[in-house]
Amino acid sequence: MTGKITQEGINLSDTAVFGGLGLVLVLVLILPFVSKRVEHNIEVFLFVMGLVAAAISGVLGLELGGKVLREPIFISAAVLGAGLLFKIFMKHIRMGIHWLLDRMSVGVFAFALVVVLGLTSSIITAIIASLVLVEIVSVLNLPRRAEVTLDVIACFAIGLGAALTPIGEPLSTIAVSKLGESFWFLLRLIGPYAIPGVVVLGGYAAFRLRRQTRGRRKPLASGETGPEGRASQPAAPGDASENAPEATLATSREEETYHGVVFRALRVYLFVMALVLLGEGFRPVIDRFVIGLPSQILYWLNMTSAVLDNATLTAAEVSVRMSSLQVRSVLMGLLISGGMLIPGNIPNIISAGKLDIGSREWASIGVPLGLVVMAIYYVILFGL
Questions:
Q1: pTM of the full structure
Q2: Please, are residues 134 and 256 in contact by the beta-carbon 8 Å criterion?
Q3: Is the confidence at residue 355, as pLDDT, over 80?
């Protein structure tokens, strides 16, 4: 390649730019999986990689600096505000859950839970929706398989619903920022596809839980207080293999603290800053290799979101030069496949950590469900 990329007096050959950005991309894709230190400090790692990518592309400057500082404000403020409300009203939330459980079946409750959290996550943020989900699943006292099933399906719904506004999750924040669109752009673009999907997922959750619980909730853990203040009895010996692993979860899960709420908001701020830097830094790669791809290929290509956070891929792929169909294909592919494995989306990571869900447990439900949903949406997007 003989062309040059010139920015503020910096001359770099295309080969050097694409080679450097390719190395950054490989590091971003691999290091979080092979290094626990990187995985546990993913925001700092991505921020550094974003700075490197922006420097290689020659886009570092005051204009980008202002954008990096502005873009995370709304979603970080939403996470902070919703987190404080969640902490303050936690006792009332628990009482309300118990009140509802006494008046409806598990199947009906599962449907309402998935749909409500899925559709409101665009306002209360995917992070807060996943924390509410964990609290509710803990109170339900379901058998282990049913608990995991409900959590995985609900995270699919939260992932779809949270993308409808730029404050819902980092993916939508980055998409709106890179496209330079208005607050309601994503609701218009993918809302007609995402909202019915959330409702269908709610129905599927109700169907699965009815089969797995046969209309009954698992007995409360020994010594735990039920909705009417009554203590439960120890589990029968014959139930130990099924119930023992999760019997202590309700008491072992960490309580939310104000320090934790503030710290989480700061981490989200840094995470979005990193994604803005990555998105701007990878613009030469997007313009050269991604924009020309057919929408159908972009859709299936984004199944990589199952093992990579979909916000990171949004930062690397979405461009203002894409058509509406291309953007819709990219986002729907990312949103659906992001629920298949734990690393794919923030709600998965939060709920799996708090509910002690292993990668194999999640994959046994998430992968088959994700593949079916991907196929259905492919027919809807491209076949009809």
A1: 0.72
A2: no
A3: yes
Q: List, in sequence order, every beta strand (DSSP E) within 73-167.
A: none
* 10 beta partners: 7
**Amino acid in the structure at residue 288:** R
Residue 71 exposure: Cα atoms within 13 Å on the Cβ side: 31
In degrees rounded to 5, what are phi and psi of residue 58?
A: 75, 30
Q: In 282-358, which residue ranges form alpha helices assigned H by DSSP?
A: 283-285, 295-301, 310-317, 324-337, 346-355
- CA dihedral for 312, 305, 200, 218, sign (positive or negative): negative
Q: Are strands 4-7 and 10-13 parallel, antiparallel or unpaired?
A: antiparallel
**From residue 375, how far is each of 142, 148, 180, 252, 367 by CA, in Å?**
30, 23, 30, 39, 12
pLDDT in tens, 65-99: 898 898 788 878 877 887 888 788 888 877 887 88
3-state secondary structure of 362: helix
Question: In terms of residues, how long is the chain?
Answer: 384
DSSP H or E run through 227? none
* 257: number of Cβ within 10 Å: 10
